[in-house]
Amino acid sequence: MGDTSAAPVQQAGFNTRRLGEALAEFASGPVNFHGLVILRHGVLVAESYRTGRDRGLYQLLLRKRRFDASQLHDMRSVTRSVIGLLWGIAATQGKVPGMDTPVMALYPELKRLALRGKETVTVRHLLTNTCGLSWREINAGTLFNHELRLYWRTYAPYLFRRPLATPPGMRFNYNGCCTSLLAELLAKHTGMTLTEFARIHLFEPLGITQWEWRKDLRGRPLAFSGLRLRPADLARIGQFVLQRGQWQGRQLLPAAWVDEAIRPHVDTGDGRQYGYHWWLGKVDAIGRPHQWVGAIGNGGQRLYIVPALDLAVAITAGAYNSHAISQHCTALLKKIAAAVEH
Question: Which ranges of the chain does DSSP label H, i.e. alpha helix?
Answer without folding.
Answer: 6-11, 16-28, 78-92, 123-127, 155-160, 176-190, 194-198, 204-206, 231-242, 255-261, 324-338
